[in-house]
Batch of 2 targets.
Target 1
Amino acid sequence: MSADALLSRLERVRKTGNGRWVSRCPAHDDKGPSLSVRELDDGRVLLHCFAGCEAQSVLDAVGLTFEDLFPERIGGDIAKRERRPFNAADVLRCLSVEALVILQYATAISRGEALTVEARSRLALAAQRFQHGAQVAHA
Ligand SMILES: [Zn+2]
């Protein structure tokens, strides 16, 4: 199967290159494109939510299974089998919402507002997401 069956079930799909797309993640309330989809030359389809959803949750949300994307393998995180499988520009697209989160809190700090515990943990989460993005991105 090609990536088409997956892409046809996603919202706000944008082709970012040959065999590469970003879209809204169907597994969480996604404001920007957090999901990166890649079709490899051998036909396998990789997907990754940069907000942290498991691949299984993304597939469940659109009614597909790992067998639909990658017939030889059942279950597991297929993205982890590829070293740095995602294009750096796509990773940045998927993390752009996180930059806005940081800006929002930085603005509050510059106004002298104290950050709540929730705000501090949300900032820590944004930092984690950028670090994770750097780990899975290739130039
Ligand atoms: Zn997600």
Target 2
Amino acid sequence: MPEIAACAADELAPNEVLQVFVDGRAPIALYNLDGQFFATDDTCTHGDASLAEGDIEDGEIICPFHMGAFDIRTGEATAPPCVSPITCYPVRVEDGTVYIEVDS
Ligand code: FES
């Protein structure tokens, strides 16, 4: 799978989320959970909302449209009206840069 350089690790403060645009595919949401980075689909599975515009609470991202939620570590839907999970992507940090492994 291709890997993209998403941002500098110090660009994303703890418990913040960033929308990452990737050529040829839907955007990805990149999270800093207490210093550990995670990536998921940015688009909610319930509607056309950007999860990067939501809030992080206790390891979950709260959708800004109808307050559904997903576990950031697993992608599991954790609060209605969300039912279907979001996809998670592997993340690594090297030399201060955050890389996300994306599907094509
Ligand atoms: S669009 Fe996300 S909860 Fe409805």
